[in-house]
Design brief:
The chain is α/β, with parallel strands linked by helices. Helix content is 44%, strand content 19%. The strands form 3 sheets. The protein has a 7-stranded mixed beta sheet with strand order 1-2-9-6-5-3-4, with helices on both faces. A two-stranded antiparallel ribbon has the order 7-8. The protein has a two-stranded antiparallel sheet with strand order 10-11. Strand 3, helix 2 and strand 4 form a beta-alpha-beta unit. Helix 5 packs parallel to helix 6 and helix 11 packs antiparallel against helix 12. The longest helix has 24 residues. The termini are far apart. The structure holds nicotinamide-adenine-dinucleotide and zinc ion. Nicotinamide-adenine-dinucleotide (NAD) binds next to helix 4, helix 5 and helix 6. The site of nicotinamide-adenine-dinucleotide has 29 residues, from helix 4, helix 5 and helix 6.
Length: 365
């Protein structure tokens, strides 16, 4: 396998370990890299499947391709049932490996299918969005949305391998690439400030689509590796979100609420970008950080085509939506704030006024 252009990031978890492989032209090598010889249920969606499923499936003699409708709206138990039904129809059993080929939605859904089909089968994930590479594919959280809220039913299911073929990102639309950059910048802010200048210095999505120079090709692979390593380190230290892992929600309390009140016109990564600015702004207002930190965060986000101001929304609506946030502990909402780069912390007792003021100040009108 020496001829493959890739980097490997080992992950340990409470019940074992696996490798995240990040590189180019890996799709045809998933079987070898994950020691998955046969009996595969390849779960993908209606956007990714037509582009890549055939190329992936042909490496196994016995592979059923299950194509689910694309998008967050279909991250449901109905889709899980569809997958089970097609697996039974194809004769899948306990020896089957579920291979996910898609973005975070397919990763989370397929992981849940793998955790539950016949009480659990092997799971391999091939993330195809930047967001799912740097965030969703590592950490073992899987599940589906319910009418009552996002990700409310699920299981921890660790993959046998994560294989990220960066070539597949070429077909990703610009906006989705940018969403992945929002999570990448978040990881950089949390504990990899050294990657931030390189991460935001060029439009990596554009260069990828237009054909990388040899230097850029390996630089991008290294960057993705370093950003995934942030998530790896956090989930290794806190696999079940007892403490530190909550820091990965930086920007998310605001972000989720903005997504919700705009009826999801704002994509997740865009909400996170706005949320990062909000977090920096509240941190400044409460005297934890400087206004310069907010400016630097904004500049980085702007460079990668992400929004840094909120759309026209009623601040009260956003505030109320935030109160539904899952991270609510007891009655008081906890916020992830910043003192500086690499020094995020969980803040209790943040005054409601400061939050409302930030939402008002950062509106785009
Ligand atoms: N498990 C976790 O720890 C974790 C962490 C972060 C996010 N998530 C979940 O991830 C989901 C968001 O993930 P996402 O942003 O990848 O969304 P997604 O899976 O919906 O993908 C975004 C869009 O891009 C399309 N797509 C995917 N790969 C493509 C490719 N290579 N070329 C062309 N189109 C492609 C998809 O069909 C979809 O339309 C959310 O459901 C979120 O809850 C999970
Ligand atoms: Zn996120």
């Amino acid at each position: 396998m020496e001829d493959l252009e890739h980097l490997t990031l080992p992950v340990t978890h409470p019940t074992g370990n696996y490798d995240v492989t990040i590189g180019y032209d890996l799709l045809g090598q998933v079987g070898k890299l994950s020691a998955t010889e046969d009996h595969v249920a390849l779960i993908t969606d209606t956007n990714v499947g037509p582009l890549y499923a055939q190329q992936a499936a042909k490496q196994w003699e016995n592979c059923v391709v299950i194509t689910l409708p694309a998008g967050e709206a279909f991250k449901t138990l109905d889709s899980v049932r569809l997958a089970y039904e097609q697996m039974f129809a194809a004769g899948c059993d306990r020896q089957t490996t579920v291979v996910a080929l898609g973005g975070g939605v397919i990763n989370d859904l397929s992981g849940f299918v793998a955790a539950t089909f016949m009480r659990g089968v092997r799971f391999v994930t091939c993330p195809t969005t930047l967001l799912s590479i740097v965030d969703a594919s590592v950490g073992g959280k899987t599940g589906v949305d319910m009418p009552e809220g996002k990700n409310l039913v699920g299981a921890f299911k660790q993959p046998e391998a994560v294989i990220a073929d960066l070539n597949l990102l070429k077909s990703l639309i610009k906006e989705e690439f940018a969403c992945g950059m929002a999570e990448a910048i978040k990881h950089g802010l949390l504990s990899a400030k050294d990657v931030l200048p390189t991460l935001t210095q060029t439009d990596w999505g554009e260069s990828l689509r237009n054909g990388f120079t040899a230097d850029d090709r390996s630089a991008f692979m290294q960057l993705v590796h370093d950003v995934v390593a942030v998530k790896r380190d956090v989930v290794q230290r806190d696999p079940f979100e007892a403490g530190e892992r909550a820091l990965l929600n930086l920007g998310h309390t605001f972000g989720h609420a903005i997504e919700q009140v705009t009826n999801y016109d704002v994509r997740h990564g865009e909400g996170v970008a706005m949320g990062l600015v909000c977090a920096a702004n509240v941190s400044y207002k409460l005297g934890f950080s400087t206004i310069d930190l907010q400016s630097v965060v904004e500049d980085m986000l702007k460079k990668v085509n992400l929004p840094v101001r909120l759309p026209r929304v009623d601040p009260e609506d956003v505030f109320n939506a935030m109160q539904q946030d899952k991270k609510k502990k007891g009655k008081k909402l906890r916020y992830i704030l910043l003192k500086d780069f690499e020094s995020a912390f969980i803040a209790e007792n943040v005054p409601d006024d400061a939050i409302l003021e930030t939402i008002r100040d950062l509106q785009n009108w």
